[in-house]
Amino acid sequence: MYRKSNLLFLMNQTSMHAGSGDSLGIVDLPIQRERHTSFPKIEASSLKGSIREHFERASEKYEKDPKILAAFGTEGDDGIGSKAGSLGFTDARLLLFPVKSMKGVFAWIVCPQIIAKFNEELKLAGHEISFKIEESLIAPDCNLLLGNNKIVLEEYTFNVKSSNSVKELGTWLAGRLFQNDTENYFAKKLKADIVVLSDDDFKDFVNLSTEVVTRTQIDNETGTVKDGALFTEEYLPAESILYTNVLTAAEFSSKDEEGVKMASKLFENEGDLRKYFGEFISKNNVFQIGGNATLGKGIVRASFIEPKNGGN
């Protein structure tokens, strides 16, 4: 039973294809989306696999590191040696989506539905803060304004008004995502250039403004395109910001070769496990999620919100 949740933020450094498989729609290989909202997401299973691989690659003991096995679980024959991991992950939800702006290059858009869900996740993770944000709002020092209270995203014009609540959201997020580097370009932009749209406008952008790339395969013998090898692939753009809940539970016991339960105490308590995960992510915070790794896709920068109690 997982008893503690901490937030892990992910910011795309390159576009990402966490695929949902073949499709009968316009795009041959779409990205994963929530069923009820159609907002982009990363399935928990995809996310956990990517994070585990990141831990294994960075570990000197590779896949036999006992702490990695305790944290992420093991698989044995006929149940012998099998053990569920003490770490769990929820689906990574989309928080901020980048959209081209006529001024200021791009904006990060969000909507009231996303903020309401994020507030619930903050409460679950033990944070007392809650953001009360309505649609059509920007921060007071927004860099995207054209004339009087108008911004242009893609080819659409929106009337907006300034609100300190958006500034508070951007400042809080910049402090968590960039922690000791809040003066870099993206941290400053996060404080100023978040735009709150209506739920419907947000839904349209995250469905119609993702990157769709046409790819093909060349026949090595003829140098021409193989028959039927032309396909389209969808990507969640760079600078997208997502978050997931990292869940921790007491360490499960495993069995020896004779099926006898073995006590294991690699982590004294759940706080030790959170501390291990947080220190590793803080030190090695860039890894890859999804397909097309050899094309440089799916590189993310992670930021783990450390427990306030120091891991106990």
Would you mind describing this structure in some detail?
The chain is α+β, with helices and mostly antiparallel strands and 312 residues long. The chain is 26% helix and 25% strand. The chain contains seven helices and 19 strands. It has helices at 44-58, 66-72, 112-124, 164-177, 185-192, 199-208, 270-283, and strands at residues 4-12, 41-42, 73-74, 83-84, 87-89, 92-100, 106-110, 137-138, 150-153, 156-159, 161-162, 194-196, 211-215, 231-235, 241-248, 254-255, 261-262, 286-288, 299-304. The strands form five sheets. Strands 1, 2, 5, 6, 7, 8, 11, 12, 15, 18 and 19 form an eleven-stranded mixed beta sheet that branches. A two-stranded antiparallel sheet has the order 3-4. A two-stranded antiparallel ribbon has the order 9-10. The protein starts with a strand and ends in an 8-residue tail after the last strand. The mean pLDDT is 88.
In short:
The protein has 312 residues and is an alpha+beta fold. It has 7 helices and 19 strands. It has helices at residues 44-58, 66-72, 112-124, 164-177, 185-192, 199-208, 270-283; strands at 4-12, 41-42, 73-74, 83-84, 87-89, 92-100, 106-110, 137-138, 150-153, 156-159, 161-162, 194-196, 211-215, 231-235, 241-248, 254-255, 261-262, 286-288, 299-304.
